[in-house]
Amino acid sequence: MLNLRQLFLNHNAQTTDFPLSLEITHAQGLYLIDQDGKKYLDLISGIGVSSIGHRHPKVIEAIKNQADRYLHLMVYGEYIQTPQTLLAAKLASLLPSNLSSIYLVNSGSEAIEGAMKLAKRFTGRSEIIACNNSYHGSTHGALSIMGNETFKQAYRPLLPDIRFIEFGNITSLENISTKTAAVFIETIQGEAGIKTANKAYWKALRAKCNETGTLLVLDEIQCGIGRSGKFSAFEHYDIVPDILVLAKALGGGMPMGAFISSANIMNALKENPILGHITTFGGHPINCAAALATLEVLESENLIESVIEKGELFKSLLTHTEITTVRGQGLMLAIQLKDFEFNKSVIDECIENGLIVDWFLHCSDSMRIAPPLTISTEEIKSACAIILAAIEKISAKN
Ligand code: PMP
Questions:
Q1: What is the CATH number of the domain that holds 380?
Q2: How many domains, the chain?
Q3: Looking at the structure, do residues 36 and 83 belong to the same domain, yes or no?
Q4: Model pTM score
Q5: Could you tell me if the CB of 109 is within 6 A of ligand 1?
Q6: pLDDT per residue over 49-68, tens digit each?
Q7: Directed axis angle between helix 285-300 and helix 57-67, to 10°?
Q8: Whole domain around residue 344: which residue ranges?
């Protein structure tokens, strides 16, 4: 009998020749435990997912309770299912009043696809504008609006009528016109290596969209649900999108995505033709129960309140001559190092020492920090000590 690692390599489809290949047997809170009993602090939350920690007891309880009632009943949108309805109502209560109609799907990419279709239907326009270095997912539509040629050139032809602007550059907003259905933009760019834009930019973007009748679609799949220090990252900039896209942390560890707009906009999916987006498993009752529990935990444990302070603690501790800068907002941070080779060596050293960190898809010379929001001051200090020791060791070798 082959061991699990060999079976993994033989039968689980591989998309790189260098998967991390950690064999995790258990996860709890901030920690992952491997088959040898080695403990890892997950400083990236499984890429922005486990914001309330792995296997939060309230989430597990909600999953078990729902499993005792029903699993899948019917394709999305036909039956009144308690977890779906309570989750949608809860989300609406946490968002500005125009973001009241919530379409629940299975993933971030599917939510982006839904939002792209909705924007085209509502405006009757086909042009979509996105940003350089954006990441919105890996399906064909989402790939079409990815701002990185390397990852998309092999899949052409992709969607037509896609244009790119420079994130944060007010001058490039001139490209938005009455032909533009929507601007798709991450409120904080994730895979670009955590890039933010200033309030003046967001105000100008909102104004330009209003002027041209273009929908502003904010992708908060990575930066939403409290990670930036506010429930929605757009709250930092005093703007409101026409469509909001969420996923990742929303499900508390279960697959869950959502695209959200006013009822007026969402109603475009009802006519000519009806059933503008169809999903069998979207809004799965177990996942909705987990998501609802996650939102309740964020509130009952006041997790968002301390996010900014914790982010600042990381920034103040992470000082070293090899660190050019620590970018980001709240608990969505990037450590800028000199190049990929150095970064990769430091990351490997951290993992060896029980700390899971990573780089970014479009920014391989920066290290990703996105821990569960539940991380304590002591855990932040010990994580930073491991990172600094790793930097010290690798720089001494070079
Ligand atoms: N948008 C952003 C900003 C993301 O970070 C991601 C996932 N990394 C996606 C969309 C796609 O989400 P998913 O992997 O669930 O399809």
A1: 3.90.1150.10
A2: 2
A3: no
A4: 0.98
A5: yes
A6: 999 999 999 999 999 999 99
A7: 150
A8: 4-55+304-397
